[in-house]
Design goal:
Elements: E1 4-7, E2 10-17, E3 51-54, H1 63-72, E4 79-82, H2 87-96, E5 100-102, E6 114-118, E7 123-126
Parallel strand pairs: 2-3, 3-4, 4-5
Antiparallel strand pairs: 1-5, 2-6, 6-7
Helix pairs in contact: 1-2
């Protein structure tokens, strides 16, 4: 799948897929990487070492610093894949040096799929 590079780098791992937007500020615990937003389909899951796949971000601009903090605390995702990366997620991924690609059709990706994200080339593929 070919998309657009947001934050460069290459990573592979298991996908954690949300069909709903993710709000990082108040939605993901900065110290554990656990999704804590009540009622979110990923509530109770951890983003640590996953390829985090979701349509777009939502919420406060502080979310950029939460993404950065997740990486600094060693509990962040290996990569981020979006349909549309808005500025909150883009800034966070760049600050945290997390590979990020958008413009991807998420319908063919399921939680548990092994993915390789080559954000240098703007590609996401099943491995």
């Amino acid at each position: 799948m070919k998309g657009r590079s947001i934050s460069f780098g290459i990573a592979s791992g298991r996908a954690l897929v949300s069909r709903a937007p993710i709000g990082f500020y108040g939605g993901i615990d900065l110290k554990t990487g656990m999704v804590i937003e009540r009622g979110h389909e990923l509530q109770g899951e951890t983003v640590k070492d996953k390829i985090l796949v979701f349509p777009c971000g939502k919420g406060s601009t502080v979310g950029s610093y939460v993404i950065y903090g997740l990486a600094k605390n060693g509990v962040g995702p290996r990569a981020i894949v979006n349909e549309r990366t808005e500025t909150i997620v883009a800034a966070g991924a760049i600050l945290a040096a997390i590979p990020c690609v958008d413009g991807i059709d998420l319908s063919g990706i399921e939680t548990g799929d092994m993915l390789e994200v080559d954000a240098d080339a703007g590609t996401v593929k099943h491995v």
